[in-house]
Amino acid sequence: MTYWHEIDSPVGPLLLAGTAQALTRVHFQSGPQPLRPPETWRHAVAPFVRVRSQLMEYFCGSRRSFELPLAPSGTPFQLAVWQALGAIPYGETLSYGELAHRLGRTAGARAVGVANGANPLPIVVPCHRVIGADGTLTGFGGGLHIKRSLLALEGAACVVDLFAAEERASFDQGHSAG
User: Fold this and answer.
1) How far, in Å, CA of 151 to CA of 147, rounded?
2) Predicted model pTM
3) 92-135 pLDDT, tens per residue?
4) Which one of 46, 87, 171, 178 has the minimum C-beta count within 10 Å?
5) What span, in angstroms and rounded, lies between the C-alpha atoms of 36 and 134?
6) C-alpha span between 85 and 47 (Å, rounded)
7) Could you list the active site residues?
8) What is the DSSP string of 121-178?
9) Cα separations (Å) of 9 from 36, 43, 76, 169, 177?
């Protein structure tokens, strides 16, 4: 049986889905494609009490990793990528190419990107910590503004540097015209 429950969060509503034993999905409801639970799913709060609690601790800055039973569904390669995502420390980022290298697939950055994009457990399995080789923030299911917010929450240096560069460029443009 699949259960679901929607919670409010600082990055918008999140739809949680899973069994009585494990979390299978976290979905950004304010993103471009909100998820409508199938009729076969049952709404329930009880299976998600720990998930909600740990997510709120994360958003408050008191939790750096999750201790939840997870059961994502994917191919063996996707599962390997998602497992590798869990090894990226809080507040740190790495490129798709570096993640591919860690998985022994030196030419597999694009495949890693596709698997990363299919992660059914964003935030909990930190796909937001993977960025472009040049340090840019690239694709994210909930939108780049949410990816930026999550990285900023964690104090990731690339986000701080990106904002500083954007602010300097904006300031320079605004003051060079006059």
Assistant:
1) 6
2) 0.86
3) 999 999 999 999 988 889 999 999 999 999 999 999 999 988 88
4) 178
5) 36
6) 24
7) 127
8) STTTS-GGGEE-TTS-----TT-HHHHHHHHHHHT-HHHHHHHHHHHHHHHHHHHH--
9) 18, 18, 31, 32, 41
